[in-house]
Design brief:
The complex is a heterodimer of chains A (about 425) and B (about 230).
Chain A: H1 3-28, H2 32-69, E1 75-79, H3 95-105, E2 111-123, E3 128-136, H4 138-144, E4 151-154, E5 164-168, H5 169-174, E6 182-188, E7 194-205, H6 210-215, E8 216-220, H7 221-228, E9 236-240, H8 248-257, E10 263-267, H9 268-271, H10 273-311, H11 313-321, H12 326-362, E11 364-365, H13 370-375, E12 381-382, H14 388-415, H15 418-423
Parallel strand pairs in A: 3-8, 5-7
Antiparallel strand pairs in A: 1-9, 1-10, 2-3, 2-6, 2-9, 4-7, 5-8, 6-7, 11-12
Chain B: E1 2-15, E2 18-31, E3 35-39, H1 46-53, E4 61-66, E5 69-70, H2 76-86, E6 87-90, H3 102-113, H4 117-130, H5 146-158, E7 164-168, H6 176-193, E8 196-201, H7 204-209, E9 212-217, E10 220-226
The chains are: A alpha+beta (about 425), B alpha/beta (about 230).
């Protein structure tokens, strides 16, 4: 095809394109009430897809962020066998080897902290409860986990606090105690003897989940060493990487740097199996949600488009009599559906983003349902999380499936013979 | 020059259990530039004949040739193309596109033909002036009277200089004065532009204007008079 022929084809295409758009736009406003019905269906559909999708993703993001900050980190290093049997015998006895490897391998901006973490029994005069004793280096810990910013009463640990302990608000309430009171911790030391020590409550923390507040108590690492006769031993090293939480390269380098017969390196995905599983099935949930919304919307689109087609049967007969081919009529009806869908999508997207913006400040507070939400691993407040993929997919689903379901009435319109269409009253 | 040639054309419809013979062995020739009317009582087959000549419907047997194009050898797409370029239609119920203005209705056929925007606009305005609708270019069909709408329909039918214009009872919905004005206008188009007009009608006024009268009764051609 030469240049002139190309130009002519382009001009013809442009004329047709403008004609389809113009006719379609005017046709959809011929019956404003019917148009409003379809638009409402599309707007509600796309709005709910994006908003509820962002809330579902917000739940996942909250669960993962909370899981990572609650003493997990992006990577953890343990003595081999610790995860199967987190007993004090499975502690890392010589952390210097690991610390040297970390200094070599970790990229700039990484943070890490070493902890002692053992099961213990906390008791006071009237109450006792199973807890997890966490011996921390307060400065390093504050950079890795939630505890540095979670103090609700009293103060955080200082290097000189040999007998200080931080407990959760929920534990404080359960033990009916307060700041300044004593709390006795009892556990098993490295010689398999009972070890106990009295600490004084110097601060409390507030966590996303009540279970966290009841489970963890924090003391200085040195204090835990002394109590458990652990020397310089530690239970785990928790690492926070800069940037994305997943960094397979660093993981591989750590695996290489640390002897596998002595150490285990685990990612947060291995350490948080429930959250990982939720993340894995989230996309499936989203597709099911999109499908349900679309089925409801799709019936509305087909029904109203069919009504519009049958109402305008004479007109389609006229268009055919004037020389329009069936394919052109099909395109005309599909163009009308396309414009309706796009208009609905624009409004639906704007409404969804307004709602997301409004919720992004305060989130949705599920404190009243805290127990149920916690059971499902959710945080107390859900903040919407926008993923471009979700927005793209929900719009694409509405557009493509909307056009697909409009094809049936469009084919009907295209298949009327001019005579039967013109005879229609 | 033959513009329409029908040879032994038959058409039957199924109405429930009954077979209706709408046309029986119709043979006729229309020459270029004729101003002919197909007349007859209701149910005589006038509209069926126009539909067949216009390629809107297919005959059961016989052959129809319009401007050298034999319908029995043409696909639906080719027929649509023929209608687009060679045949203009005027319907009893005007059948304008309600969302388009008078000028846009006239332009529509040219748009389908791929005529450029500037030429379309010029030709549409000129033809609307010719049919007495100067200044009413932007009126939508709902804003025009029946007679004015039918004038727009005529303008749309002739604007791209088709070989024939088929007008199915064009005056049926108009009062006699408006109908006469429309007929005068079409007669003028026929004389000045040599456009061939074929009407179906049972309106005496149309028959008076026509220079050839073809009578149908019960689907048969019973008389063919050239005045």
């Amino acid at each position: 095809m030469n240049r002139r022929a190309w130009n002519m084809s382009f001009i013809k295409f442009r004329h047709f394109f403008i004609m389809y758009l113009q006719l379609a736009w005017r046709n959809i406003w011929r019956n404003p009430r019917r148009t409003a019905v379809i638009l409402t269906a599309v707007i509600i559909g796309i709005w709910s897809m994006i908003l509820l999708g962002s809330l579902m993703r917000g739940i996942a993001v909250g669960m993962i962020e909370n899981g990572i900050s609650t003493l997990t980190g992006h990577l953890q290093i343990h003595h081999k066998g610790y995860r199967n049997d987190p007993a004090i015998e499975n502690s890392i006895t010589d952390p210097v080897v690991v610390e040297n490897a970390l200094r070599e391998v970790l990229p700039k901006g990484s943070s890490w902290t070493a902890r002692v973490r053992v099961s213990a029994v906390a008791s006071n005069a009237r109450h006792y409860s199973g807890v997890t004793l966490v011996g921390i280096d307060p400065v390093a810990e504050a950079k890795v986990s939630f505890i540095g910013t979670a103090i609700s009463q009293g103060r955080y640990l200082n290097p000189g606090d040999h007998n200080g302990i931080i407990v959760g608000e929920a534990l404080l309430e359960k033990f009916d105690t307060k700041l300044g009171r004593k709390l006795v911790l009892m556990s098993q030391d490295t010689h398999r003897e009972n070890a106990s020590r009295a600490f004084r409550i110097i601060g409390t923390f507030r966590a996303e989940m009540e279970a966290t507040e009841k489970q963890f108590v924090f003391v200085m690492r040195k204090a835990s060493h002394k109590m458990l006769r652990l020397g310089d031993g530690i239970s785990e090293i928790s690492i926070l990487l800069p940037g994305k939480p997943d960094n397979p390269e660093i993981y591989d380098r750590l695996m290489t740097a640390l002897p596998s017969e002595q150490f285990e390196v685990n990612t947060w995905r291995e350490l948080l199996p429930f959250q990982t599983a939720y993340l894995r099935i989230l996309d499936g949930f989203m597709w099911i949600w999109y499908f349900v919304v679309f089925v409801a919307m799709g019936f509305g689109i087909v029904n109203t488009t069919l009504m519009a087609v049958f109402e305008r049967m004479r007109e389609f007969g006229l268009l055919k009599a004037l020389g329009m081919k069936p394919w052109w009529i099909l395109r005309e009806v599909l163009t009308e559906s396309f414009l309706l869908l796009v208009t609905g999508m624009i409004i639906g997207n704007i409404l969804a983003f307004i709602c997301i913006y409004a919720l992004s400040g305060s989130g949705i507070d599920l404190s009243a349902l805290a127990a149920g939400a916690e059971y499902a691993g959710m945080t107390r407040v859900i903040y919407p999380a926008v993923a471009l993929k979700d927005i793209f997919v929900s719009n694409l689903v509405v557009l493509l499936l909307g056009i697909l379901v409009s094809t049936y009435p469009a084919v009907k319109a295209a298949r009327f013979t001019p005579v039967e269409a013109l005879a229609h009253t | 020059m033959k513009i329409v040639e029908c040879i032994n054309v038959n058409k039957t419809y199924q109405q429930g259990q009954i077979k209706v013979h709408a046309l029986r062995d119709i043979s006729l020739v229309i020459e270029k530039g004729e101003f002919a009317a197909v007349a007859g009582p209701s149910g005589s087959g006038k509209t069926t004949l126009l539909n067949l000549v216009g390629g809107l419907d297919a005959s059961d047997s016989g052959s129809i040739v319009v401007d050298g194009n034999a319908f029995d050898q043409m696909s639906q797409s080719q027929l649509a193309n023929l209608r687009l370029h060679k045949i203009g239609f005027v319907f009893q119920a005007y059948n304008l596109i309600p969302v388009l203005s008078a000028a846009e209705n006239v332009e529509f056929v040219m748009l389908l033909q791929g005529v450029t925007a500037r030429e379309r606009q010029q030709r549409a305005k000129a033809i609307l002036d010719d049919v007495g609708l100067a200044g009413k270019y932007d009126r939508r069909p709902a804003e025009l009277s029946g007679g004015q709408q039918q004038r727009v329909a005529v303008a749309r039918a002739i604007v791209s200089s088709p070989s024939i214009v088929l007008a199915d009872e064009p005056t049926a919905n108009l009062d006699s004065k408006t109908g006469e004005g429309l007929l005068e206008m079409m007669q003028k188009m026929n004389e000045e532009k040599r456009v061939t007009f074929i009407f179906s009608t049972h309106d005496k006024m149309v028959m008076d204007y026509a220079r050839r009268l073809i009578f149908l009764r019960d689907g048969r051609l019973v008389d063919d008079q050239v005045k």
